[in-house]
Write a structure and sequence with these properties.
CATH topology of one domain: Rossmann fold
CATH class of one domain: Alpha Beta
Distance between the termini: 61 Å
Helix content: 25-40%
Number of strands: 25
Oligomer: single chain
Structural class: alpha/beta
Strand content: 25-35%
Radius of gyration: 23 Å
CATH architecture of one domain: 3-Layer(aba) Sandwich
Number of helices: 15
Length: 506
């Protein structure tokens, strides 16, 4: 029996396939049958292009129902879906294409020229386009094809998606997620968050990210239920549509911006049974303000690219700070420096084991081995504790990860690009508190002798051509020397302390 996760999702589709799965803000509806049909035609196109199960299909497109169909097409065909952040620039895309060696890249029509240029440097890569208004060669070429109805036979251990996540060594790594990872995590969340018939999800998250795709979308496919599908987060649209929804998922920044609008009231949120926050720490101040204003507690959960979701608070949790208990089937423990398991309340390294944990890093067995214990626990790099009631608390992050507006920013990757700029001797990238994004990216820079005229604006301009906007430091500080310890390591803790008020204005 195939363990293809799309086969699981489709087995739960409503008996009436004309039921609406995706509804756009203009009222356009895409039924479960339509999604199945479009994805089957895309799968046929993959076959005609000579793409094989296990080949990678890299995708950088705007959010649209057709983009969801493309994801589904990859699952059902057995190809490996590789989403790329829409903010990625040439340098980032070039690296991923070289590392993943995709058979096909699907991009925005306006990006076709640059993508074809990058693809030409690596023989055998097909390029198709998909626009947010149903235009592009992917749909043109698949529209008239006979649907490929068969769902590829996959095992739970077969890779179905690769998500690139940066690391402290600077270069992004491809986290390989399997059909079993996605299926098990979807079922665990479905049970924990008590999804039910008649639920309606208001979807305002990006779909190149695990939160918007593997949590929100997969749950809606599995439940099954309607998604009201917004192209992006927009306060006016959320306020208008919340009364029609029963579930809303967002990053903390969403809730901060909604709280700034006086239209967000208890009455407006009265039909919503579940508010979820993730992808970044939710401040206690935000949690309490939302509870006071709406009467609803935001459910916090803890996940990461390599594991999808690990823990969740129960619905209606009254306190903030904890990210809840381990999901069904997932084990979480805290260990000391020598790997020994710590007692409740002791702070150490958070490790996770379960069917949600990824298979490893693409073509990087050394890093995979380094991040797994012999007994199968994955070393997350997060620091925290588990209390006597088995609630998990994140108290910090190893490896200096910055989470800005729900997106991971790894300092070393940004430093590599800054250090390449003429006149830069060395840089140190770090995160400091930001009232809107949770953390803002900042950088301390030491200029080379004779380059005192190098400005922050000049550095920013060069970075904009190479990096996604959320990775670019919003504050740059020029120092004669970077602070170091006795071993010569840059003391980012001191930089964070010195510039902690950069964005708060205190």
């Amino acid at each position: 029996m195939s363990e293809n996760c799309y086969a699981l999702f489709r087995s739960r589709f409503p008996a009436d396939r004309s039921d609406v799965f995706i509804e756009l803000d203009d009222g356009t509806g895409y039924s479960f049958g339509t999604i199945d049909d479009i994805s089957a035609r895309m799968a046929r196109l993959f076959e005609e292009l000579g793409i094989l199960p296990g080949d990678r299909i890299a995708v950088q497109v705007e959010k649209s129902p057709e983009a969801i169909c493309l994801y589904v097409a990859c699952l059902r065909y057995g190809a490996i879906f590789l989403p790329m952040n829409t903010a990625y620039q040439k340098g980032e895309i070039e690296y991923i294409l070289a590392d993943a060696e995709p058979a096909l890249v699907v991009c925005r029509p306006e990006s076709e020229t640059i993508i074809r240029e990058l693809a030409a440097a690596r023989k055998g890569i097909h390029v198709l386009t998909l626009g947010h208004s149903r235009e592009g060669t992917l749909l043109e070429r698949s529209k008239g094809l006979e649907p490929l109805r068969d769902i590829s036979s996959r095992t739970k251990g077969d890779v179905c998606c690769i998500l690139y996540t940066s690391g402290t060594t600077g270069r992004p790594k491809g986290a390989m997620l399997t059909h079993g990872n996605l299926a098990s995590n979807t079922m665990a969340l479905h049970r924990t968050w008590q999804f039910q018939k008649g639920d309606v999800l208001l979807h305002a998250l990006p779909i190149f990210h695990a939160h918007g795709l593997f949590v929100a979308t997969n749950l809606s496919l599995y439940n099954p239920c309607k998604m009201i599908f917004l192209p992006r987060f927009d306060v006016d649209a959320i306020v208008r549509l919340l009364p029609r929804a029963s579930v809303f998922m967002g990053v903390p920044t969403f809730y901060v911006r909604l709280l700034a609008d006086e239209r967000v009231t208890r009455e407006l949120c009265g039909h919503v049974r579940l508010f979820v926050a993730g992808s970044a720490p939710l401040l206690e101040e935000t949690f309490n303000a939302w509870k006071t204003r709406t009467g609803m507690a935001i459910v916090e959960r803890y996940g990461m690219t390599e594991t999808v979701m690990n823990t969740s608070n129960p619905i209606g949790a009254e306190t903030s700070g904890s990210c809840g208990k381990a999901l069904p089937g997932v084990e979480v423990r805290v260990t000391g420096e020598n790997g020994s398991v710590l007692a409740p309340g002791e702070v150490g390294n958070i490790e996770v084991r379960g069917p949600n944990v990824f298979k490893g890093y693409w073509r990087n067995p050394e890093k995979t081995k380094e991040d797994f214990r012999a007994d199968g626990f994955f070393i997350t790099g997060d620091v925290g504790k588990i209390d006597a009631q088995d609630y998990v608390w994140i108290v910090g992050r190893a490896k200096d990860l910055i989470i800005s507006g729900g997106y991971n920013v790894y300092p070393k990757e940004v430093e590599i690009y800054i250090d390449r700029i003429e006149g830069v001797d060395e840089s140190a990238v770090f995160g400091v508190p930001h009232p809107d994004f949770g953390e803002g990216v900042a950088a301390a820079i030491k200029r080379k002798p004779g380059h005192s005229n190098l400005t922050a604006d000049a550095i920013t301009a060069k970075l904009k051509a190479e990096l996604a906007h959320y990775k670019i430091p919003k504050k740059l500080y020029f120092l004669d020397e970077l602070p170091r310890n006795a071993m010569g390591k840059v003391q980012k803790k001191l930089l964070r302390e010195q510039y902690k008020d950069s964005f708060t204005g205190r």
